[in-house]
Amino acid sequence: MALLATHKLTAHYGDFQALFGVDITLDEGETIAIIGANGAGKTTLMRSIAGTLINEEPSVTFSDSVIGNRPADEIMAMGIAMVPEGRRLFPSLSVEENLLIGTYGRQHSGHWNLQTVYELFPILKERRANPGTALSGGQQQMVAIGRALMSNPRVLLCDEISLGLAPVVIRDIYKAVPKIKEAGASLIVVEQDIGQAMQVADRVYCMMEGRVTLSGTPDELSREAIHDAYFGAAV
Amino acid sequence: MIWVDTILQGILLGGLYALFAAGLSLVFGIMRLVNLAHGDLIVLGAYLILLLVTMTGLSPFLAAAIAIPLMFMLGYGLQKFMLNRVLGDDILPPLLVTFGLSVVLQNALLEGFSADSQRLPAGTLSTASVEVAGINLGVLPLLTFASAVLVIVGLNQLFYRTSLGRAFRATSDDATTASLMGIKPASIFAKATSIAMIIVTIAALYLGMRSNFDPNIGPARLIYAFEAVIIGGLGSLWGTLAGGIIIGVAQTVGAAINPEWQILAGHVAFLIVLLIRPRGLFPRAVD
Amino acid sequence: MADQTNTTPYAAHTGTNASRVAGVLALGLIVVLVALPAFASRSLIQDMFFILTMLVLAQFWNLLAGYGGLVSIGQQAFVGIGAYAMFGVVILAGLDPIPAILLGGVIAVLLAIPTAFFAFRLQGAYFAIGTWVIAEVVRLVVSQWQAVGGGTGTSLPRSATRELWFADAIENLFGVRSAAARDILSYWLAVILAVATIGGIYWLLRTRRGLALAAVRDNIEAAKSVGVDATRMKWIVFLVAAFGTGLTGALIYLQKARISPDAAFSVQDWTAYVIFIVVIGGIGTIEGPIIGVLVFFILQSLLADYGTWYLMLLGVIGIIIMLFAPRGLWGLISDRTGVELFPVRRRLTGGRLGQQKSPNNKTE
């Protein structure tokens, strides 16, 4: 049985429907990537799983529980942490406080703590007393990842972690992914950078206009199939 | 020398106003809620202490110690069952609900305690004074000021040294992202209001010992508190103390010139600050 | 509207059937109101005067808060200054009270300019308390004005109330004494003021300005991006409300003929009651304050003897409405029936789109 799954997941913003029956599964220890163009519904999917967008129907399951209609703080306490799009550090908190607040809801036992996060991203230790928002974009992203890791989540949701960053910085950040997997988390990575996604993912889902249009392992998927799933076959 | 005395009295009075204001400032800082019943809650606290003193014969300080947990719970319930339901992007519902609460509290107190003025029995403390460099300072005003400083130090410790304080700041910055950290904003708001009610009770203790009170004086206390917060700059607790002192000094100096000008002078000082420093004397860098 | 076909050209309408029926009924109501003194008792006229003046205050507060997003708790400043300006020129300059009422409105606008200058520096909720502070300042300053009685207040001179314009004619027409004639005259002025206020606000909301106002309230950034000058709209609304509130204050105190700072600048009488009227009736609609003032009057007639209990009940009703029916009684009625007596929304009719949309008046 899958660790986390969505079942015909739909989502609305007011009258606007953003997701139309999305099915994805994530197995224990697996990393999946969600790719797709802007507006495909990737972030909406992440928000529906994390609980910052409450679903009308409880169509997300995690472990043995139905979580689709729970608020974000309860979902986090069950072991799902999110690195939100745009990093969203707390400007009133220092780097270290931003990391510490990641454990406010609950800290599961596991590999990650302040010390191991500083080992993963040594630059953060140097900047620990700075306000989180005084850092460079890449360093802010490290804080956001570290903050989510602090609770030792079973599932880590990463929403567009390479957005707006230079390629060399993206490479640095993605170096952390194997270590995160090694420590026991399963990952859902939302990416616009297809190359990066293909490298880290065990399986890939491609979304377009609120639907999953293609899925499979990176080896199975041809460039053409992805192009079609990304932009629509007719184009 | 008379002027030095007047100004010193004003500074000490400012301590009382800072106590009025600290709770208002705390709640606004975390949830952007202006509680129009804040002054009436202070008066409610004073009556609660009075009731405990009358019933048990305890000193007002001990009675306040008993009142604090009661007011704490009242704050929790108020936030959880009433105010959390109206918090949102629209400022109108929370304003109107707290305005309604203010009217209800005032009239409930009138019904329960009549419009007669009351005072908490402070015993010898009310007349005790110490002489510093030829100036007589009341012990009670000094105690009020010291309590205000302690409350502000305590709040700063809470905000910057504890995990709850981190959660307060994080929720104030961005409630949605805070919820991803496992923080339940509604519960954070309830805790903040509860803590504000502790300060309200401390303010009530000194209000009741230093002067007469009746059910109708709440709105004026709200206004002094509000003026102190705005003068100090939103989000700055030390600024709130400075704001209280400015109102206090303006009032005592105004009263020394003409007793009828006391309240007016405080308001005028507020308007002058608003004119030259619209964001207050110590505005927070990030807003 | 029912006979629209696909070939009908697109057109924007604000009228509804209910609004046209309401228009006819309103005309009838105005005729009855004007003729009322011919057969009503003096106490009924006084009650009607109270209802109409509170209605006007409520309409202007609703314009500020419900349409302009400016929640003021300081409107008593304008009631008081309007009334005191009227008393001032009557006592000091010997002017007749009727033209002095107009002056009350003008002075209120003059006070509103510095008030807005200070209060607009405060955002959102702090604006509310800021207006209250300014009202307190005005009350304290007026209390120092000895020529009109200082802190204890004063009465209108007998000569002024006796020789009021039109008072003789009214005395002769209805065979009443001068005090009753003043009540009737005040009442007629209140009818004119109420009709002009509702008509004027309705007109304002239907103009381009009104649309801009709704845009500013709903989303200030979006409104700015389509070229609405939000600051200018706030100023206009604030000054208009001050003018109307000042006029009403002067009229109320012409009828009372006695004034004191505590009464004329009472936050309870001129702002708290008004807020409850608007909230109970339904904020952000013209119908709301009308329903609200009737409910308020009935509650007051039934419960005023219970003093504090009555006020507590009013507060509790206000809280309950805000928690469970934030659009007030009119919101409940309108949601169930779709009726709008003062429609300000433009609805598209004609064409295919109009066919789909027009049966549903609730679509925003």
Strand order within the widest beta sheet of chain C: 1-4
**Sheet of most strands of chain A:** 6 strands, mixed
Main sheet: strand order of chain A: 6-7-8-3-9-10
Can you tell me the residue ranges of chain C where pLDDT is under 50 for at least 5 consecutive residues? Answer: 1-5, 352-364
The first-to-last residue Cα distance of chain C is 18 Å
Termini separation of chain A: 37 Å
Structural class by SSE content of chain C: mainly alpha
Fraction of residues in β-strands of chain A? 25-35%
Describe the overall structure.
The complex is a heterotrimer of chains A (about 240), B (about 290) and C (about 375). Chain A has helices at about 40-50, 70-80, 95-100, 115-120, 120-125, 135-150, 165-175, 175-180, 195-200, 225-230; strands spanning about 5-15, 15-25, 30-35, 60, 65, 80-85, 155-160, 185-190, 205-210, 210-215. Chain A is an alpha/beta fold and about 240 residues long. In chain A, the strands form 2 sheets. In chain A, strands 6-7-8-3-9-10 form a 6-stranded mixed β-sheet, sandwiched between helices. Chain B is built from 11 helices and 2 strands. Chain B has helices at about 1-30, 40-55, 60-85, 90-115, 140-160, 165-175, 175-180, 185-210, 220-230, 235-255, 260-275; strands at about 130, 135-140. Chain B has a two-stranded antiparallel ribbon with strand order 1-2. Chain B is globular, with a radius of gyration of 19 Å. Chain B starts with a helix and ends in an 11-residue tail after the last helix. The mean pLDDT of chain B is about 90. Chain C has a domain at about 35-265. Chain C is about 70% helix and about 5% strand. The longest helix of chain C has 29 residues, at about 180-205. Chains in contact: A-B, B-C. The interface of B and C includes residues 111 and 226 of B.
Provide a concise account of the structure shown.
The complex is a heterotrimer of chains A (235), B (287) and C (364). Helices cover 34% and strands 25% of the residues of chain A.
